[in-house]
Model the fold of this input.
Amino acid sequence: MKSFRKELWFNVPSQRGFVNITGEVEAALRASGIREGLCLVNAMHITASVFINDNESGLHHDYEQWLERLAPHEPTGQYRHNDTGEDNADAHLKRQVMGREVVVAISQGKLDFGPWEAIFYGEFDGGRRKRVLIKIIGE
Amino acid sequence: MKSFRKELWFNVPSQRGFVNITGEVEAALRASGIREGLCLVNAMHITASVFINDNESGLHHDYEQWLERLAPHEPTGQYRHNDTGEDNADAHLKRQVMGREVVVAISQGKLDFGPWEAIFYGEFDGGRRKRVLIKIIGE
Amino acid sequence: MKSFRKELWFNVPSQRGFVNITGEVEAALRASGIREGLCLVNAMHITASVFINDNESGLHHDYEQWLERLAPHEPTGQYRHNDTGEDNADAHLKRQVMGREVVVAISQGKLDFGPWEAIFYGEFDGGRRKRVLIKIIGE
Done:
């Protein structure tokens, strides 16, 4: 069994945003030389997500509006977590809806994807450097 | 390390629905000959889910009502994604709540499940042919 | 390829609660002797979650309030699942938001975590004995 590890770094300047990382995961897979296995891609921070969905800017706008409706940033005083001096409690909630990680099958040396699958980093508390972990195991 | 890959095809005639695929995943596991490992089951489409919960029709009705409350289909004009000519933005949102994939432990040649766990395909934009991927790795 | 399996048992006395299980997963990893691989941690029950987020009690209070707003326990008669004699339909919904499982990379014999990641068992229908499964594969 082979294993491969790589970190991706981000600094999303806005509070929230989505970054397509499919190409970087494909590059990591090529570097790994793994042909059959599983690829884990996860946010290493607890106010961010990694998820798979459509590379369409209108949908990303809809996600932004919808998450803000389900778990509003304001008023920040509605969350006890923010009593610690943070103002990012909503980001911890939004990340649970969108998920921490994805696991992707590796088949014949490729990400084994359906026609519209793309991998995104979802930032919910930006303006700082944060990481994603790619871990691939297989043969 | 062994690996095994299989696709399942669906054509749910209604807009939304849940299909129990536990038996098909068990059949794939038997065909794989793998006794210890991990089994990934994921929707290959971004308006569908694979999730594990109860095989109880009342609960599935509750999921349907609840998801429609969290992310309503109508009015379709509330979503920018639908400006592309689609009417399925809500399906992309519902799928994030229910999840893209499950990873199941394989122990002694079986899905290593608790007493009530069952695997479902969740369709949120039906009336077309769509796929689920089963990928098993182990020994 | 090596594999390792361990169950953790819980009996959360309240209806809902969060338990930090990071130390128990680390102990299982040490017992496995695995240095590079993947670690699956999943609830074996369908009214409970395993998730990764912050070990901060204010945030856990916020999760509790937020989940109760998204999927209220009362009135129990609003859910068809409860026609079966159960009163836990809301717990099946809350568990979908928080997730069934996490998959964690194992690198150099450790859980490959960012600075604030911790693993929690989330109970949404307590007062009974329930299990979590840890399955580790690798070398």
The CA atoms of residues 66 and 72 of chain C lie 9 Å apart. DSSP finds three helices and eight strands in chain C. Chain C touches chain A at residues 1, 36-38, 51-54, 56-59, 61-63, 66, 70, 97-99, 102-105, 107, 112-117, 137-139 (CB under 8 Å). The mean pLDDT of chain C is 98.
